[in-house]
Amino acid sequence: LAGGGIDQSLLQRWALQRRMDWTPEGGWRELFDTRLGPGEMRRLYTPVPPDLSVQVRVIVAPDADYHDRVYPYLIRELRGEIDQQSIRLLETALKQSASSAYQLFQWNCGPAGQQEDDCQ
Q1: Dihedral sign for Cα atoms in the order 89, 70, 15, 7
Q2: What is the pLDDT of residue 101?
Q3: How many CB atoms within 10 Å of residue 115?
Q4: What is the residue-level pLDDT of the chain in tens, covering all 120 positions?
Q5: Any idea what DSSP says for residue 32?
Q6: Which positions ≥6 away from 71 have C-beta within 8 Å?
Q7: Which of 18, 19, 53, 86 could join 31 via S-S bond, C-beta 3.0 to 4.6 A?
Q8: What is the pLDDT of residue 41?
Q9: CA 33 to CA 20: how far, in whole Å?
Q10: d(Cα 24, Cα 54) in Å, to the nearest integer?
Q11: Buried b (16+ CB within 10 A) or exposed e, 12-30
Q12: How many CB atoms lie within 10 A of CB 84?
């Protein structure tokens, strides 16, 4: 939203992802899966004051779980158990995973009272 600052109460954020967890004792376990299946869609309904503009961005972060959980866990747990070259490879993968996010789509629309055709 643009027009004199962002009212945080108007912001909406969704994470479409599958979150897994792994433990040596239990193996892999699915925590949740909010990905969209074939033919599914997500609709945004939010009140927008008539004098504000709207911006919708879709940001894809394919390696977020690896960056946030998997690589740090492996580095922490395997340090001292595997050779330093392997640890360096994991650290390199961790650094690279921080920059894999990209913006897939952006939609901008002028003041909320305008027609959808005016959006780009």
Answers
A1: negative
A2: 93
A3: 8
A4: 444 566 676 667 778 888 888 888 998 899 999 888 899 988 777 667 777 777 888 889 989 989 998 999 999 999 999 999 999 999 999 999 999 999 998 888 777 555 555 565
A5: E
A6: 90, 91, 93, 94, 97
A7: 19
A8: 87
A9: 9
A10: 46
A11: eeeeeeeeeeeeeeeeeee
A12: 9
Residue 32 phi/psi, 5-degree rounding, is: -165, 165
CA distance 11 to 83: 46
- For residue 42, the model assigns a pLDDT of 81
Give CA–CA dist 120/113, Å, rounded.
15
What is 45-109 written as a DSSP string?
-----TT-BEEEEEEE-TTHHIIIIIHHHHHHHHBTTB-HHHHHHHHHHHHHHTT--EEEEEEEE
The pLDDT assigned to 77 comes to 92
